[in-house]
Each structure stands twice: as structure tokens, then as C-alpha cells.
Sequence to fold (364 residues):
Amino acid sequence: MASGDFCSPGEGVEILQQVCSKQLPPCNLSEEDLLKNPHFSRLLLSLSQHVDESGLSLSLAQEQAQAWKKVRLHKTAWLRSEILQRIIQELLVDYYVKTQDTSLTSEDKKFHETLEQRLLVTELTQLLGPSSQERVIPPLLGLEKADLLELMPPSEDFVWMRARLPLEVEEQLKKKCFTLLCYHDPNSDSDSETLKAAKVWKLAEVLVGEKQQCQDAKSQQKEQIVLLEKKSATYSQVLLRCLALLQRLLQEHRLKTQSELDRINAQYLEIKCSAMILKLRMEELKILSDTYTAEKVEVHRLIRDRLEGAIRLQEHDMEKSRQVLNTYEVLGDEFDRLVKEYTQLKQATENKRWALQEFSKAYR
Fold:
């Protein structure tokens, strides 16, 4: 570190490479940021001595590693018991399947029945929980462990079954290992059993190697992501500077001639618009000249004269009718009374004429 609270450009690069990229979690910092914030640079160097690459303190990281070690040990023990439990259940399932298809020997039936009986009694005993002296709540279905122990198979059958069980479990595990090998390497399906066993023996190492390759690839991907983020930030700054430069060039050079260019473009568009209007008018006149010939125009003129004459006659008749109506309006209510009386007399005459016609039809 340089004298005082400041770092030189070379030291800034060293801090970025050793501290920000490796010892601390990924952070988007540049050398320029460290030069502008010297106290922050010293803070990063101090933090790098007390935290790991995940951001945890060294003591807490050590405690976390020990805790994970204990978790893995407990997980391994649980997986072993879980695998054994599932293998035994699969043996019983295979036994029930075989009883439907083939005839089993008495020894096979005895083995599977003893295994099933022992497994069920053990599981039920575990469900009951602690003994009656330690139990607070009443037992399940009022059963005690002594009641279940009476259902245990005979001791000689249990000893015989226990001696045979490892062989059955080993055979079942071998089938599963071969299945896993064929899934991992389908070409191994046609190999002999001895060759398959040799490949299964090395399968764990192969899987560990592939897992390590995946982890290395993930680490490289993480480094590439950090590098990409740094490049993206750098490129963004460069692009911003380029945009600022382009904006300055536009303001200094293009905008000076923009008004003249706009005026010329406006004149051009105006002339073009006038030409288009004239062209449209010419097309309109051309269509009219093609549509209306001299004969058609003469016929239309005659038709128009006749229609105008008819209109004048109608207007003359309408004027006469209007004068008659004005005369009637002068008479007032008396004229209305006479019209109503005339209407009633006409209606009565029509009724009597209809009745006379009906009587004439009846006496014919």
C-alpha cells in the first residue's frame, strides 16, 4: 500500500485481482472506484484477513465446516439404514409377485414370511414409543410391547433367516448396482457379470470424478460470470462515452445545417404535394371526359329541363293549395264545424246505403 490512505494504480489492480476476485464474494468494482475511495480500499484489505470467499468470518466458517461434517456423517448413517429398509421391502414385494406366477420352495416361503413377521413386529414396537413407566398418554390400541413380542417368529427361524438375509440383500444390491451401471453406461448392458462387477467397483470413483468436473465447470462459469459483469460494466461506460461524443458532434456539426435542410425538405414536399394534386385533378377530368360523351350530356340536359319544368308546375300547384288553405283558415271555427257536420252526414248516408243494399240482398 502506498503512503498515507491512498493506493497507486498498480496497487489498485493488485487489490482487484487478489481480494475482490478471490477472497471476497463477487463485487462489481473497478480500479477507478478504488482510486476514488482509498479508505474503502484499506477496508477491503482488512476484511480479506477476516472473512472467506463466501463472506463468513473465518471462525464461523470453521464451525460451519465441522457442522456440515457431522451432518454428512448422520446423513450417511441414515442412508445406510434407509437403503437396508427399502431393500427388505423390495424383497417382500418381489416375493408376493413371484407367488402369483411361480411356485416357490418351502424354504423361500419360510424365509420371506419370517422376514415379514419380524419386520412388522419391529415397526409396530417402534410405533408404541417408550415403555409403560415412561409413557404419559395411553398406548396405541391398548397394546404393550409384551403383546407384540409374543408375535415374534421362533428363535431358530429368526436365526436361520438372519443368516440368509445378507446373501439376499447382497444379491438385491448387486442387481441395483448393475442397473445403475447400465443407466450410466448403456454399453455395459452386454458385458459379462464379472466385467460389470469390475466396473461397478470403479463406478464410485468415476461418479466422484464427474462430480468434480461439474464443480470445476461451475467454478469456471462463476468466474466467467464475474468477468462478464466486469466487461459489461466497462463496455457500458465506453458506450456512454461514445454516446456523449456523438451527441457533441451532432450539436456542433449537424444542427448548424439542420434549419437549411429542413427548409429545403419543406419546399420539396410542398412542390411534390402540388404535383400530386394536379395529377389527381387531371385523372379526375380524364375519367369525366371518358364517362360523359356529347350525346350523354345532351340527353342529361333534356332530362334536367323536363325535371325543372315539372318542379315549376309542382311549385305552382303548391302555391294554389297554399292560397286555398289560407282562405279556409280565414273562416275559423265555423268552417271546422261545417266540416265535422258534413263528415257526419256523409257517414250516416254511407251507413244507410249499406243497410239498403243488405235489405235488397235479403228480399231477392
Notes: Confidence is low (pLDDT under 50) at residues 1-7. The chain has four domains: 60-190, 206-291, 292-320, 332-364.
